[in-house]
Design goal:
The protein is mainly α. It is 78% helix and 0% strand.
Length: 88
C-alpha cells in the first residue's frame, strides 16, 4: 500500500470517530503523548493567531518555535483547516 493510500485510510478512520472519548483513545494508541501535546499546542497557536495575537505574543504563550509558528501562520492565512474548524 502506498503512503497516499495509508493517509486516506487514516482520514477514513478519523471520520468514523463520534465522541471525544473515541478520539482520545485513538490518539493515545496512535501517537505518543508528546505528539498529541505538540498537535494541541499548534492548535492553540492557531487560535491565538486567529484572535489577532502577534508572533511574539504567541511564542511567549506557547512552546512553539518561530519556524513552526511560521508554518502555522501560513496555514491559518492560506489553508482551509484551521480557519474552518476554529471559527465555528
Amino acid at each position: 500500500m502506498e503512503i497516499s493510500e495509508k493517509i486516506e485510510n487514516l482520514y477514513q478512520v478519523l471520520l468514523k470517530l463520534e465522541t471525544m472519548e473515541e478520539c482520545k483513545v485513538l490518539l493515545e494508541d496512535l501517537c505518543t503523548r508528546k505528539e498529541v501535546a505538540n498537535m494541541a499546542e499548534r492548535l492553540y497557536a492557531a487560535q491565538l493567531l486567529l484572535e489577532g495575537k502577534t508572533y511574539n505574543q504567541v511564542i511567549s504563550e506557547t512552546s512553539i518555535s518561530s519556524a513552526t509558528l511560521s508554518r502555522i501562520s501560513q496555514c491559518v492565512q492560506y489553508g482551509k483547516g484551521y480557519s474552518a474548524l476554529l471559527k465555528k
